[in-house]
Design brief:
The strands form 6 sheets. This protein has a 7-stranded mixed sheet with strand order 15-18-12-11-20-23-22, with helices on one face. Strands 1, 2, 5, 8 and 9 form a 5-stranded mixed sheet that branches. A 4-stranded antiparallel sheet has the order 4-3-6-7, with no helix packed on it. By secondary structure, it is mainly beta. It is globular, with a radius of gyration of 22 Å. Helix 1 packs parallel to helix 2. It has 2 helices and 24 strands. A hairpin with a 2-residue loop joins strand 16 and strand 17. The chain has 2 domains: 94 residues, Immunoglobulin-like (Sandwich); 202 residues, Immunoglobulin-like (Sandwich).
């Protein structure tokens, strides 16, 4: 992975997790620190089924884990009581930005809490809700729904290409965890833009190891529990692909297009121009639709100068970082406003 892509991954991860990458502490004096106070997490493991009250899972293993820049691994584990309850008391250590969480496995699928915040975590923030599983139907339309789609086109790159980031908001509206039927039957897939190269998975809720790029498609092979997941994909396309026409296979609650620079347009599927955004001195034109229908066509046109095509690598790396930041910033704003 190139230096620019590594920086992109770090930046995107920071925005998604709501954390900041710490600055270097080089030159700081070593001062003895007082021990961290004891922390605790008290929760339950329950299975949720449609039309039923959550049922406790007794005797199952729950692990408390830590991920930091210094070390990562399981800190402790315990079996749940007859009412599905578990409890850990622990002391945080090392990297102050390390995250702590608990997890349990049910039906061969691992379930995790969100990162534990505060000294004492209880209730919903500590509960592990698990689900029965069902295999995705082979060769049929995915049971996952695409609720939102965000398409970001960056500034011009050398050799006449453009960097693109797509973010899919995937939701499982059932009460079952959907698992792949086989190694060749994904739970969900999407066509890439014609001419896409160097496709990779960005930071989000889906690991790169479970997304395969094959025959011009991105295919997802991972258990997807009920709820919302974010899948981010980035790649490059030739400028000759523009004007770019995208046929939407799904109805969307939110469709968003961000275009670096000025003069670009996005039309169709109910898109209309919104006020542009500027992040780190990089301007983006923004186009938004609150309801796009399956079968709608989106036409994206870009504008750029010849000088942009010969930007130095440092500028290229910064441009990639900037439009990734713009995507996450505007995506959060869009969903916050649409659910108020």
């Amino acid at each position: 992975m190139s230096g620019a892509r590594r920086r992109l991954a770090l930046l995107t991860a920071g925005f998604l997790l709501g954390i900041a990458v710490p600055a270097s502490r080089a030159g700081a004096q070593d001062v003895p620190l007082a021990p961290e106070p004891l922390s605790s997490v008290v929760g339950r493991v329950v299975v949720a089924r449609a039309g039923e009250e959550p049922r406790p899972i007794p005797g199952t293993w729950v692990a408390l884990s830590r991920i930091g820049n210094d070390t990562a691994g399981v800190i402790d584990s315990v079996r749940t009581a007859s009412d599905g309850a578990y409890r850990f008391t622990y002391r945080r250590f090392g990297d102050p930005d390390a995250i702590y969480f608990t997890d349990a496995t049910y039906g061969g699928v691992a379930y995790f809490t969100d990162p534990l915040r505060g000294l004492n975590v209880t209730g919903e923030d500590a509960d592990l809700v698990v689900f029965d599983t069902v295999s995705a139907p082979a060769g049929a339309k995915s049971p996952l729904r695409v609720r939102g789609r965000h398409f970001v086109v960056g500034a011009a790159l050398p050799r006449g290409r453009r960097a693109v980031v797509e973010v899919f908001e995937l939701t499982n509206d059932t009460s079952l965890t959907i698992v792949p039927r086989s190694d060749v039957d994904p739970v969900w897939s999407a066509a890439l833009v014609p001419g896409a190269e160097q496709a990779e998975v960005g930071d989000g809720d889906v690991s790169a190891s479970v997304v395969h790029f094959r025959d011009g498609r991105a295919e997802l092979f991972a258990p997807i529990a009920p709820g919302l997941r974010q899948l981010s994909i980035h790649y490059t396309v030739p400028e000759s692909a523009f004007p770019l026409t995208l046929a939407l296979p799904d109805s969307l609650e939110v469709l968003e297009v961000l275009l670096a620079g000025s003069g670009g347009t996005a039309t169709g599927a109910g898109l209309h121009a919104e006020r542009g955004v500027t992040i780190e001195e990089e301007p983006y034109a923004r186009f938004l639709s609150r309801q796009a229908e399956a079968g709608d066509e989106v036409v994206i046109r870009i504008a750029g100068s010849a000088a942009e095509r010969f930007a130095v690598p440092l500028v290229i790396g910064l441009s990639v970082l900037v439009f990734a930041a713009a995507l996450v910033h505007v995506r959060r704003t869009t969903y916050r406003s649409s659910h108020n």
